[in-house]
Design a protein that fits this description.
283 residues, mainly alpha, MetI-like fold, 2 domains, 13 helices
């Protein structure tokens, strides 16, 4: 009876859907639409590389302003990633492992900067930490002025990029099988030993993937940085801000910076995908 039922159930499933490698009839239409979207996504990138690979762009890489923007972006991005790992990892563990009242509100607060326009984020930072902001007078009493400083760049980048780290790290910790941790506890391992030797190694691909995504989002930040930190060369001018400035005076310098950012983004995407593949292999 069981075998007959299974054979009847199998016959009710359309043959075109039995294999995940096949498409139903008329599959050429979704394939064509998908290809259209892929071509659209590829065209600006190919155009950027095509126009960017020339002597003028190569010469622009020797510009001191390009070096200054690159160095500032590297410093602020590295600091942002470090802060995100230190502060975001405990939050990711809590969101992945704990159930508490208001958890949905916390998750929404973490994800809100992703949906919030960066310019609005910059205005919010200015209203909070500017000289006339809520905490501005308190900071001035300690001799601290954040707007239009390198610290403002870090704060703006951190606000818009840390959700990417928290989300990826949370997924990494959720993917760790609880059975392995319980087995280690049964063998007498302490909580710290379990976290260090079981949880962290298995969640590490998600953590590293989140760090890469956080870093590339911080390096590409524009709106919040412009509103809160300004566009001061050598002080607050990151690579993206330098592209905007260069477009007004020297298109080759803008292309050089754009190609550089594109190469960084490609490296991050490849690295993130390889880490996710490694996590899937571990699971």
């Amino acid at each position: 009876m069981k075998g007959t039922f299974e054979r009847r159930e199998e016959r009710t499933v359309p043959r075109a859907w039995r294999s995940p490698r096949t498409l139903p009839r008329g599959g050429a239409i979704p394939v064509g639409l998908a290809m259209l979207l892929l071509v659209y996504l590829a065209m600006p990138l190919l155009a950027l590389v095509w126009r960017g690979v020339n002597r003028g762009t190569a010469h622009a890489f020797n510009d001191p302003l390009v070096h200054a923007a690159l160095w500032l972006t590297f410093k602020t991005t590295a600091l942002v990633v470090a802060i995100a790992v230190v502060l975001g990892t405990p939050l990711a563990i809590i969101l992945a492992r704990q159930e508490f009242r208001g958890k949905a509100l916390v998750e929404g607060l973490v994800e809100l900067p992703i949906a919030l326009p960066p310019v609005i984020a910059g205005v919010g930072l200015l209203m909070a930490f500017g000289r006339r902001g809520i905490f501005g007078p308190i900071l001035e009493e300690f001799g601290i002025a954040l707007p239009f400083t390198t610290a403002a760049v870090v704060l703006a980048q951190l606000f818009v990029s840390v959700p990417f780290y928290v989300r990826a790290a949370t997924l990494g910790f959720r993917a760790v099988p609880r059975e392995l941790e319980e087995a280690a506890a049964v063998d007498g391992a302490s909580s710290w030993a379990i976290f260090r030797h079981v949880t962290m190694p298995l969640a590490l691909p998600g953590i590293l993937s989140g760090a890469l995504l956080c870093g590339t989002r911080a390096a590409s930040e524009f709106g919040a940085t412009l509103m809160f930190a300004g566009n001061l060369s050598g002080r607050t001018q990151t690579l993206t801000l330098a592209v905007m400035t260069a477009m007004e005076t020297d298109v080759w310098r803008a292309l050089a910076l754009a190609v550089l950012l594109l190469l960084i983004a490609v490296g991050v995407v490849v690295g993130a995908r390889s880490l996710v593949s490694g996590r899937d292999a571990l699971i």
